């Protein structure tokens, strides 16, 4: 029988560890996919579905052919790159994955709006489980470790797909008020917290619910801005400047610092946001920041994956290489590994319990 502690040992520490490969179990994908496509679980989902799925889909447009094949190899048949990008949030909310919660952010002990800065030694509490920078370093190494079984390298890919999105969300790089979670605000008359409106409420107010069509439309728009629109120059000159996977800590720190700068420049520029209505002018000013940050994350994710697989970022041209239009990159792996089957069963059970609590409430 598969021992869940093997996964715990493999993923808890920032250092690279190996463990015995789990038994491969064949089963119908209909058992896996409902869990992968669940709409929500308790707790905050960084960037929400809109952000994470758009980041992953945009990245797929810039994957070199060899990288696309690699990604497909480590996704299940019927599992899209968009589905894989939201897995880490669901995993963090089950007992088996609870240790990974701190991997979704880094708590910058700075002083916004006066001082915004991320200091790895000060802010990444490795002794307490690590942070998003140490997690990206770890998963970047693990996905390249050919001695690890398929299931562990596949999970490393899912973590990377997610964390590159998270690290571009400004409030995932800030300690103040628990990254804005304790700042209670109003959004179009409804109670919310600052973190939640940056994760999803602002973008959904403009774009609607995160349907596949809506996500593809946003991805197409961001791609156009990168390839010849307002992001073109900056993407070519700045966004691809740190994609060295052998210096993962350094590059992740650069990305986190860029996101953290927005905390002083806009997110917490007004120190007194408590109780304020932010659905008007504040949200209007946040939309360009959110969309640009999502575009940055998707572009950099593509370059990161290309570097991992091919050894070059593949972003020298202005045109995309992979899927475009309405196509979505999906996996090729048949069957489901036992570790993933157990995880998905826990996720489904957690969702059922959450729904039960909502009904009772």
From TrEMBL:
Q: Name one GO molecular function term.
A: metal ion binding
Q: Which Pfam families match?
A: S1-P1_nuclease (PF02265)
Record keyword RNA-binding present: no
Q: Which domain of life is it from?
A: Eukaryota
Instruction: Give a yes or no for keyword Metal-binding in this entry.
Output: yes
Please cite one Gene Ontology biological process associated with this protein: DNA catabolic process
Going by the UniProt record, its keywords in alphabetical order are:
Disulfide bond, Endonuclease, Glycoprotein, Hydrolase, Metal-binding, Nuclease
SUPFAM superfamilies linked to this entry: Phospholipase C/P1 nuclease
Q: Which family does it belong to?
A: Belongs to the nuclease type I family.
PANTHER family tied to this protein: ENDONUCLEASE 4
| UniProt name for this protein | Uncharacterized protein
**What broad taxonomic lineage does this protein's source fall under?**
Eukaryota, Fungi, Dikarya, Ascomycota, Pezizomycotina
